[in-house]
Write a structure and sequence with these properties.
alpha+beta, about 375 residues
């Protein structure tokens, strides 16, 4: 029984109760006693806002399934069924929502290392950087992962080491780019795709060579293992940065992505630079479009395939293990009007908003 039907039942019971025969009756309230209406008002307040459910038209895809990012595309490739259940079981409609849902020691560690690196690139003081890192840490300051060598204090050591690298001349030939008089760090972007799909992401930092004008995208990563180029060379995440770079540098046909990976066990930074050409960016756009068409196809068959090889991942069972074969409606949350409002509001929060057609035209013009 929904909250709405529960409320209607309570209303009928209240109006049929002896309170309705009380002499304190307000004719403007349809004959219900003042005591009855006060009781009903109290019940309404305790229930809070009643969700307004949205009914989708036949063949229409839930808009939550159309919110893509690098991590959600990775999940779609691993297991389409898990992607479907994950998107429809949560109220996460923005990248900030996804970040808050991942608040773990590992996530916090990587987050504040990235914040520290961005602060150093901006030329902030050491004290200001440390304060930002402290305020960004969501977990227990004393929590330690001894196996992966991760904690708040070890993350601060990594930040301190990057500050020392900068002081020693690291990337001294480059200067931080600016967009609308703001340093180009933590830039957010949204690419609007056909049929209502959206791809969203962030760039850690954009730098420009002081002499040649070469564009360099800095991507901060942390790894509890050994950094290997195969982990990042063909990542679609770095290719998605062309969405921003085509706006900031319309005449740039290629750029370099520098993955700066901090190995938590060796306490060392590893540099992994990769050149991103016009051809690779064109292929990425095609692949992105294919993913949206795959979701359309899964929806048309009302079947999101289950990839059994992904049921055990990151040393643990999938959270949907044992229930993913149940009816989707019984294990997911229905779409509400408030969710649609949040999706619409999220679209206005990004530094860069580009349509697929605009990006395609930019690629074609550079190719010719």
């Amino acid at each position: 029984m929904t909250k709405s039907s529960e409320l209607l039942t309570e209303l009928e019971e209240l109006l049929d109760s002896p309170l309705a025969d009380s002499p304190l009756v307000d004719e403007n309230l349809g004959g219900a006693s003042l005591d009855t209406m006060q009781c009903l008002d109290a019940r309404l307040s305790s229930l809070g806002d009643i969700p307004v459910y949205v009914t989708l038209q036949e063949g229409e895809i839930d808009p939550r399934l159309k919110l893509l990012s690098h991590s959600s595309r990775t999940l779609l490739h691993k297991c389409p069924r898990k992607y479907q259940l994950y998107r429809l079981s949560s109220e996460q409609v923005s990248l900030e929502d996804e970040a808050q849902a991942k608040q773990t020691l590992t996530f916090d560690y990587g987050t504040i290392v990235g914040i520290g690196m961005q602060g150093a690139l901006e030329g902030k003081s050491e004290d200001a950087i440390f304060l930002e890192c402290f305020l960004a840490w969501e977990g227990d300051l004393l929590e330690v992962n001894t196996r992966q060598k991760k904690s708040f204090w070890l993350a601060m050591f990594a930040v301190k080491k990057f500050i020392s690298l900068r002081a020693g001349g690291f990337l001294e030939s480059y200067e931080l780019a600016y967009y609308k008089n703001k340093p180009a760090v933590e830039l957010s972007f949204q690419l609007t795709l056909p049929n209502g799909y959206k791809y969203r992401g962030f760039i850690d930092g954009v730098l420009v060579h002081k002499v040649t004008g070469e564009v360099l995208v800095l991507e901060a990563k942390t790894s509890s293992g050994t950094a290997n180029s195969a982990m990042f060379k063909n990542s679609g995440q770095a290719l998605g940065y062309s969405v921003v770079l085509d706006v900031m540098f319309p005449h740039t046909s290629s750029y370099t992505v520098l993955y700066l990976v901090y190995e938590t066990k060796s306490y060392e930074y590893v540099e992994l630079p990769f050149k991103k050409s016009l051809l690779k960016r064109a292929l990425w756009l095609q692949e992105l479009l294919i993913d949206t068409q795959l979701i359309d196809l899964y929806h048309s068959y009302d079947t999101y395939p289950m990839h059994g090889e992904s049921c055990f991942d990151f040393f643990r069972d999938c959270e949907y293990m044992g229930i993913c074969t149940l009816s989707t409606e019984n294990i997911t949350k229905p779409l509400t009007a408030s969710m649609l409002e949040r999706i619409e509001a999220d679209s206005g929060k990004y530094d860069f908003k580009v349509t697929f057609e605009e990006l395609l035209e930019a690629q074609v013009s550079k190719g010719t």
